[in-house]
Amino acid sequence: MAIAELGGKQIEIDEDGFIQDPNAWDEEVAKSLAGTEGVAELTEDHWKVVNYLREYYLEFNMAPMIRKLCKTTGFKLKEIYDLFPSGPAKGACKVAGLPKPTGCV
Amino acid sequence: MAKTKLTDISKNSEKELLQISADDLPPLPSGCGGGEEITPLSEDNKKEWEHCLDGISALKLPRPQNKEEEDKLVRSFLEGVEKLLTKENNWTFLLPLMHTLESCGKCLACSDACPVYEMSGKQDIYRPTYRAEVLRRIVKNHTTRGKALFPGFSEGKIELNWATVARLAELSFRCTICRRCAQACVRGVDNALITHELRKVFSQQMGITAEVLHEKGTVQQLNVGASTGMNKMAFLDIIDFLEDEMEEKLGRRVKMPMDKEGADILLIHNSGEYLSWPLNPVAFAIIFELAGIDYTLSSELGGYEGTNYGLWYDDLQFARIVVQQIQVAHKLGVKKIVVGECGHAHKAMIVIADRLLTGETIIPRESCFPLLEEIVFSGKIKFDPGKNDFPVLLHDPCNVVRLMGIVEPQRRILRHIAPQFREMNPHGVDNYCCGGGSGFATMSPSKAFTDWKMAISGRKKVQQILEAFGDELGPGKKNFVCAPCSNCKGQFRDLIEYYDLEKKYGIYYDGLVELIVNAMVDIKEPYIEWGGM
């Protein structure tokens, strides 16, 4: 497992760049993670997605279904891809500090 | 093409047997792809993980630090192989394993049948016979029971050292267990079973397997309820959301019945459907409701997850999951379980579970496809096939079609509701795997492995799809691949992205029930969303 410097902290990441300890996440970490995803600046729209993902994760201990993410944030799937080029699971969840999704998803 | 001998497997573990280059790979039609290089492991990963097979790592197998560690692992592997040969330890597959060890005539018909071998540019190490023959020689030369069973064995020996074991570990994750090789064998040899048995030795004996199949797969499923990590609370939240969401989309409320005791049927989907392809379980709910089927979903541990990754690597984990699923059905008092559009759940719960369940634990388990056919032709639902007037291509999930012989129900449905239905060549029991079988669709242990499953194990399917749609292909077109299996759908999504199939050729994918609902007269709005939502 590799260690990366994110938001000024040394944080363990997996081979796809997901942080391993969701508690290590903060807004500075999110900004660094966004950089690894080719997102230069986190706009209000990015934060809307990231904050909802965090909120859902803290309540249900998993990422929300993509459809619910779109519905709640008001973004179409295509718009989520515009915000996070790797998509909701590989991109947005990573920036939000969630574990990499598992199973047949 | 690299010529690799059988005995090369034991040589120098510092050196890779093979490095695949994009130039080795057969070209694809319609100007698709070209230059699919496999990203090498980083220098750090190379130091850390074994990669002496082909420079790729599926297992992130740590490299032993010294000879002692190596020898210990080799001894452990051999003990595991000994166990494969006894009925006490291999109650699941001893008989077909012995048949496969005894019966290969070395005709190599299975090599020509294997999409991984063909689409790798015919690399010897990927022949179905390569790993099988290595194991056969280990059994015959190195195990006590093997020496007794095959006393006159005089073929070449394989040296059993760490290089052999490390390469076999990775090699057991270069086969999708599609069993096209077994289909091609005139003697009924099943070289895909060899893949399975090797994975089993590594997992059950040595604790070596893919993290996403074990810790985050079966272990998570047994503890939390699903390999997706979906717990009961999240599942019920999703069902509530879907009922509301569909009321908005369809203008009618569709009930997804939950924990209904005494229903005729317990319907179990792959939990990934709810998260990534929720129109699929909703389509089942619409169809079953209109057809008056008495069924229920379950929110109990074991009741809302059809996957069983144990099937791919570990008989004990497999058994634990089956038991959990069956208990839910007994508790609800249903007459049978129906498995949704998930290929490996078909194999695990319906076919292989027969090796586990006895007496009162047995409960009928059936595929959704014959039931869907019965409903579509019952006259209870009105269809307008004109609503599906676009090219539809059917993909055959290996476990449903080749393994179980469920070939025609889904085809009769498509002929009835999709006027432009067409077949790939070959299809039915001779189909090709999507390339994501045996867990590959869910695995991304290294960029190298992800590249491999896109560039090689999924390549044949891409070739078939492009050929079958032919002149229909083009930007802005709508070509539909019907892939009635959660695992295949995940692989198709990734292949479409990797080869840019949607943008360049207008290729989309989804399941079968979505097409059925899309053709319903009573559902006014289009049901299929063509990649958008």
Explain the layout of strands and helices:
The complex is a heterodimer of chains A (105) and B (533).
Chain A: E1 2-6, E2 9-13, H1 27-36, H2 44-60, H3 66-73, H4 77-83, H5 87-95
Antiparallel strand pairs in A: 1-2
Helix pairs in contact in A: 4-5
Chain B: H1 43-48, H2 67-84, H3 94-103, H4 109-113, H5 115-119, H6 128-142, H7 144-149, H8 162-171, H9 180-184, H10 191-205, H11 214-224, H12 232-250, E1 265-268, H13 271-276, H14 279-291, E2 295-296, H15 315-332, E3 336-339, H16 343-351, E4 365-367, H17 368-376, E5 392-394, H18 398-403, H19 408-417, E6 421-422, H20 447-457, H21 459-469, E7 479-482, H22 486-498, H23 501-505, E8 507-510, H24 512-518
Parallel strand pairs in B: 1-2, 1-3, 3-4, 5-6, 5-7, 7-8
Helix pairs in contact in B: 2-10, 6-10, 11-15, 14-24, 17-19
Can you give a write-up of this model?
- The complex is a heterodimer of chains A (105) and B (533).
- With 105 residues, chain A is mainly alpha-helical.
- Chain A has one domain: Arc Repressor Mutant, subunit A (Orthogonal Bundle), CATH 1.10.10.370.
- Chain A contains 5 helices and 2 strands, in the order E-E-H-H-H-H-H.
- A two-stranded antiparallel ribbon of chain A has the order 1-2.
- In chain A, helix 4 packs across helix 5.
- Chain A is globular, with a radius of gyration of 13 Å.
- The two termini of chain A are 23 Å apart.
- Chain B is mainly alpha-helical.
- Chain B folds into 2 domains: 200 residues, no CATH class; 302 residues, no CATH class.
- Chain B is globular and about 70 Å long.
- The mean pLDDT of chain B is 96.
- The chains are: A mainly alpha (105), B mainly alpha (533).
- The interface between A and B is medium-sized, with 21 and 41 residues.
Features:
heterodimer; A: 105 residues; mainly alpha; Arc Repressor Mutant, subunit A; two-stranded antiparallel sheet; 5 helices; 2 strands; 10% strand; B: 533 residues; 2 domains; four-stranded parallel sheet; 24 helices; 8 strands; 46% helix; 5% strand; globular
